[in-house]
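Something for you to look into today, if you have time. Just paste the record in under my message, thanks.
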Amino acid sequence: MSQQENNATMKRELSTVSVMFIAVGAMVGSGVFSMTGVGVTRAGSAAILSYFVAACVSIISSLPHIIAISACPCAGGYYNYISRFLSPTVGYFYQWQRLVGTLALSPVAMVFAQYLQIVFPEVPSMVASLGIIVVFALINLLNVRTITKFNNVFVVVMIIALLVFVGFGAPHVDVTRLNNFMENGFQGMILGVVLFMSTYGCAPFVANLGREMKNPRKSVPLAIIGGTFLTAAIYMLVTFTYVTTYDYHANPGAAVGDVAKTFMPGPAFWFLMIGGALLAIMTTINAGIMATARAMWSGARDGVFPKWFGHINKNGVPDRMILAVAVLMAFPVVSGMSLEYVTYLSSAPGFIFSMLIPISTLFIPKRFPHLYANSFMPLKRPAHIALVVVVCGILAYLSGSSITQLTGKAIICLIIYYGLVALNLIRVRKQYEKEGKTFGGLKTDYDPFWIEEEARLAAEAAAASK
């Protein structure tokens, strides 16, 4: 069964509000509660600026993604554009990189354990991390409408809790702490941007839900752009409170909860821990599993991964791939990798492979001109090319900054990994030959929705011109 044949079992149930809440929930949990302390250690007070710069860079970097998904919505997101508009072989390597990228979800589970121990100190961190992964893997086996109802409530409570933190911190703000704003220099600020990009990078997760949205052309731009700016405002408020109320030099890497203890009364503090930290982290884990499983599922349907993982359950969700993603998330937890190192390990190749996404969008106007013309921002060819060049330049720079933080052993491991992935491509091609097909034939295996919509829009344009 082809990938497109199975898309019919996925239901269009996600509203624009639900999609935005998924994006905000994905970003806020992973950013404020898992990265603020680490980012302040790298950038100092300039972490406030790092969050803002990262938001701007993320929006710019996401524009080609937004154009693509608003023109050609589908299940599985970016893999479909790379494999159909560039090459199935390139798409193959992108999907296997996504396995490494999935590790970026693990630090969120690690941070959940840290915050849970504030409330229940007797719970072992590994048990808490693995437990929350299992819980949300099971929740994601339900239908998408049920999942998003819970997510929407969680996000509202989470935002209220963070505003409570800012409110109680306001009387304790000491702006003189900002005097040495760029204490770690420009490079420190940029390392903060690299770390925070991994949190804003959760926003484009929603592209993988394109075939489950009621109106993807409207929902995706609003969710990514609006959600990122809303999240940035929250990030900056919380970070401003963090650096102006707390001596982070005395306790580098302190969590937001550690700062909150210094000025928040008991009830408000526990509301922040439970209603803010724990819920925020849970929304990120939920969005990560939901979106990543669908992205990986798309590859399984094409045989990039074993086709056994391409199964869809009665609720219309890729159940086997959801469980596979949960196992991948658990690996860094069990192996004892640090939160910061896992982020760099997943970001270094991730930024490089992400350049394939904007490049692939250059081919949409030629293949589906009417879909492109009706996308969120149908740029003229020169402007489109210029945007892609800028985005690729940004991603290349961020990738280089991430690679410098890796050990030689980690780099060698990545080289070996991609070498094995290349060897596996031989097996995949032979499997296609046994089935009387060619792997390269995937390049024209377009989503039926794209074909139908292109024909409909072309007919409307022809009728209007008469």
